[in-house]
Design goal:
Largest sheet: 6 strands, mixed
Bound molecules: inosinic acid
Number of helices: 4
Structural class: alpha/beta
Helix content: 25-40%
Order of helices and strands: HEHEHEEEHEEE
Shape: globular
Length: 186
């Protein structure tokens, strides 16, 4: 049964980051985040950007050994594989974050537009500090000068799916990060 689930999806050309590597990295990042915030004497409010960051959030928070709270927001920035360049808030936070220390959880930093806008919004809402943890980083695509404070994996300039990342809303449930076969885009 377990083997069935782990079988590679027929539309995947290659796996870029394995399930095992993601789990190991989540444990490392969680430990680092725990130490950093504990040393600062701060407890972060973890803000997950829907929908892509959900699998990463679920795995990461298991390893954050602090009394965190979390909340969600949704933004739109992509249709298919192309950036539409304009970031729209389609679901806002459900709570006040005035004076709070925010840890944004993202699936990927690509052009950087989403995180720039979302970070600005957090400060406008009165956040005391904003840090970013992203599962993936694609620095070669950056158009905005922004760096995540914690990065799971730096990847080359390829469109990826899995572990939260989608192509037209599909493949988010794959337990690994992979690249689709070329014919999937035709
Ligand atoms: P940015 O604003 O260009 O940094 O894009 C951020 C958002 O674009 C991410 O949260 C993803 O939802 C989406 N995105 C960027 N690159 C990829 C990719 O390779 N696969 C799937 N979604 C992506």
């Amino acid at each position: 049964m377990q083997e069935e689930i782990k079988r590679m999806h027929p539309n995947i050309k290659k796996v870029l980051v394995s399930e095992e590597a993601i789990q190991t990295r989540c444990a490392e990042l969680g430990k680092q985040i725990t130490e950093d915030y504990r040393n600062l004497g701060k407890v972060p409010v973890v803000v997950s950007v829907l929908k892509g960051s959900v699998p990463f959030l679920v795995n990461l928070i298991k390893y954050i050994d602090l009394d965190i709270e979390f909340d969600f927001m949704a933004v739109s920035s992509y249709e298919g594989t192309e950036s539409i360049g304009d970031v729209k808030i389609i679901m806002d936070l459900n709570r006040s974050i005035k004076g709070d220390h925010i840890l944004m959880v993202e699936d990927i930093v690509d052009t950087g537009r989403t995180l720039k806008e979302v970070t600005k919004l957090m400060f406008n809402k009165g956040a005391e500090s904003v840090k970013i943890v992203s599962l993936l980083d694609k620095p070669s695509r950056r158009v905005i000068d922004i760096t995540a404070d914690y990065v799971g994996f730096t990847i080359p300039n390829e469109f990826v799916v899995g572990f939260g990342l989608d192509f037209d809303e599909k493949y988010r449930n794959l337990p690994y990060v992979g690249v689709l076969k070329d014919e999937c885009y035709q």
